[in-house]
User: Fold this.
Amino acid sequence: MSENQAFPAQQQEPPGLTAHWVREAGRTCVLLPGDLREEQVCHDVVAGTVDGLGGLDVLVNNAGYQMARRSSVADVTTDDLDRVMRTNLYALVWLVQAALPHLGRGSSIVNVSSIQAYQPSTALLDYASTKAAITNLTVNLAAELGPRGIRVNAVAPGPVWTPLQPATQPTEKIERFGTDTPLGRAGQPAECAPAFVFLASPRDASYVSGTVLGVTGGKAVF
Assistant:
């Protein structure tokens, strides 16, 4: 997608949320709610996007799930693994497979890795594993799709204030969230946005592929 974007969300967006502001800017927003843990839903979301916007040239794989309220690998259940793997990793592969027939030269895929791929927390063993896999998958896809003129990159956020944090972290950890970064604080979602815009741009990032761009407050991504 270039000037238009599709945002999987609820069908009715009140003023103040993403769809409202996209439409206020005179753009088209196609709302496609669904559970991306289901393969058919991933294919349906891509088909709905193409139908609603007339094409597809940027795919951002941003779905993610984590649960940090564990003290040991012994606490990770099979259901936990299924939910994390299907949300974070399977959905990414299914969406790429569904999108590829619609992507052409100059298109871009942007995945979401994490600082957890490089500095994993023991309480996020399953989540961190998926983020490391996404980093590897990004490099592999860049190699495969480069000859077709399709760039593949990833953004690796560090500690960023999203609703996911207070919902999945113990209170004592939230009180210190982000203070261990060189910049001494957690980031805001708006501070991640320019990284996605840059990597999606066929002009500004025309020679950037197979790269992980860290937005980490100074934590190393390598």
User: Anything to note?
Assistant: Confidence is low (pLDDT under 50) at residues 1-13. The longest helix spans residues 78-99.
